Amino acid sequence: MPTCPGCQQSRSKRDGHSPSGRQRYACRSCRRDFTVHSGSAFSGYRFPPEVILTALRWYFSYALSAQQVMELLAERGMDVSRRTILRWAQAFGPLLGQAVRRRRVSFGQRWFVDEVFVRIGGLQQYLYRMIDETGHVVDVLVREHRDTASAEAFFRQAQERTAGLPEEVVSDYHQPYIKALQHIWPDVLHRRSGLHRAQGITTKPVERSHIPTRDRLRNSRGLKTTATAQRFLEGFEALYALRHGHVAGVTIGCPEHDRVRQVTHLRRAR
Prior knowledge:
alpha/beta; globular; 8 strands; five-stranded mixed sheet; Nucleotidyltransferase, domain 5
C-alpha cells in the first residue's frame, strides 16, 4: 500500500475512487483519504501535469507573455486563462528551482558575483546573480536596495543552497561586497576587478550572463513585487540550466520537455 502523505505511514486500505477515477486510499492511522498523486505539487489542479509543464516551459524559456502562452495552448485545444498561467509560474517557479538545485552539477572554485538593476512595479530594484567559471548560475536574489545588507543576504542564501563554498569570489569595485564577504565568508579569497581590465581576471563572464535574464525581463509585465520577481526568476534560471546542460543526469540530446520531466518529481512543500 502507498505511504500516506500526511503521517508518512503505510497502514492504509483501498477506499473507492476519486472523482477523476484514481484509486483512493484511507489511512488507518490519521484517517486521511488520499491517492498516489496526493503528495505531488500538481495535486488539486484541474489540468494534468503535462499541460502545466508545457505552459511553464514556454513562459520561462521564451520571450512570451501569458497571453501568448494562452493562445498557443488554445490552438492545441486547452482552454487556460492568462491569470492561471501567471499563477502557475508563481506556484511552480520556486519548485522548479528546488528540483534543479538537487541535481545540478558541481560548481567550480571561482565564483563571479554582480548586481544588475531591474524595474519591478515601476521601481528600480536590484538583481544579484552569481556564476562559476563555467557559467553555471549559483544563485539569484532580488532586493530593493543595493547595499551591504543586500549583499550579505545574497551570500547567506547562496551558502544555504549550495553544498560548499568557493575558493575565491570575483566582484567589481562595489564597496558593500568587501564587508559582506568579510562577515559571511571570511575564509574565501576576494578579488576585485573590472569589466574592461586589459589583463588578468575580469567580471566579463557574469556581466555577459545577465543578457538572457534582462532580455526575458524586458518582455515581462507581470512582475509587480519583489516576491513575485524572485519566484519568476527561480523558474527562469531552472529552465535555463536545463537547456544548457547544467543539471546532472539529464540527457541533453532528448527533447527539452523530457529534460523537464526528468527532474520535476515535484512534491508539496511541508
